[in-house]
Specification:
alpha/beta; globular; Rossmann fold; binds magnesium ion; 5 helices; seven-stranded mixed β-sheet; 34% helix; binds guanosine-5'-triphosphate
C-alpha cells in the first residue's frame, strides 16, 4: 500500500464522542516511550505527523489521523513510566479503557507496540489481556530492533512472544524495518 495522504483529524480526551464511524480505526497502544507515535510517523513516512518525544508521556490525548481518506490511525497515549506520577497514569489508563471498551466505534485492529530493548512489562501483558477481553484483534510490534544485535533480537523476541502470546513483527521506526509487513496486516484489517 502507498500512503498517499495522512492528516490530523481530531484529538479527544474521553468526554466527547468518538469520531463518526465512517472510517475504520486502527489503534496504536503501548507503554509510554515504546514508540507509538514514531511507528505511525514511520508508516506514513513523515517525520512529524505525530509528535514524538524523548520525554515519556508526550501524547496525552487520543489522536485520530485520517489515512488515504479511508481509515484512521488512532494514536493512544501510554503510561507506565515512573516520571509521570500515579495520578497522571491513572487518568491515561481510564482514557485507554474508555476508548477500547466503547461499543460505538470499535478498532478493527490494535497494534500493540512494545520496546524490544527492555523486558516485556506488566503493562504490555495488561494491554494484551484487555485487547483479548475486548475481542479486538491485535498484532504485536517489537519496536527499536535497530538497537539490538542478532543474538539479542532472537532472545528478546522469544521472551516477548512467551509473555504476550502471539506472533511478533520486528520493527524499527528509525530504519523502517518491518514497515511493509505491518502495512500489509493493517490494510487487510480495514478492508
Ligand atoms: N532507536 C530507536 N528509537 C526509537 C524508535 N522508535 C521510537 N524511538 C525513540 O523512543 C522515544 C519515544 O518515542 P515516541 O514515539 O514518542 O513514544 P510513544 O510511545 O509515542 O510515547 P508516549 O507518547 O509518551 O506514550 C523517542 O525518543 C524516539 O525517538 C526506534 O525504532 N528506534
Ligand atoms: Mg506518543
Amino acid at each position: 500500500m502507498n500512503v498517499t495522504s495522512a492528516e490530523f483529524a481530531k484529538g479527544i480526551i474521553g468526554t466527547d464522542s468518538i469520531l463518526d464511524e465512517k472510517y475504520p480505526q486502527v489503534a496504536f497502544v503501548g507503554r509510554s516511550n515504546a514508540g507509538k507515535s514514531s511507528v505511525i510517523n514511520s508508516l506514513v513516512m513523515r517525520k512529524d505527523l505525530v509528535k514524538s518525544s524523548s520525554m515519556p508521556g508526550k501524547t496525552k490525548e487520543i489522536n485520530f489521523f485520517l489515512i488515504n481518506k479511508k481509515f484512521y490511525f488512532v494514536d493512544l497515549p501510554g503510561y507506565g513510566f515512573a516520571r509521570m506520577g500515579a495520578k497522571g497514569a491513572e487518568k491515561i489508563r481510564k482514557l485507554i479503557l474508555w476508548y477500547l471498551g466503547s461499543g460505538e466505534a470499535r478498532a478493527r485492529l490494535a497494534v500493540l507496540i512494545v520496546d524490544s530493548t527492555v523486558k516485556p512489562m506488566s503493562y504490555d501483558k495488561e494491554m494484551a489481556d484487555i485487547l483479548r477481553a475486548e475481542k479486538i484483534p491485535f498484532v504485536i510490534v517489537a519496536n527499536k530492533i535497530d538497537c539490538l544485535n542478532q543474538t539479542e533480537r532472537a532472545h528478546n523476541i522469544k521472551s516477548i512472544e512467551a509473555a504476550l502470546g502471539g506472533a511478533v513483527v520486528l520493527y524499527s521506526a528509525r530504519t523502517h524495518h518491518g514497515r511493509e509487513e505491518l502495512l500489509e496486516i493493517i490494510v487487510k484489517s480495514v478492508k
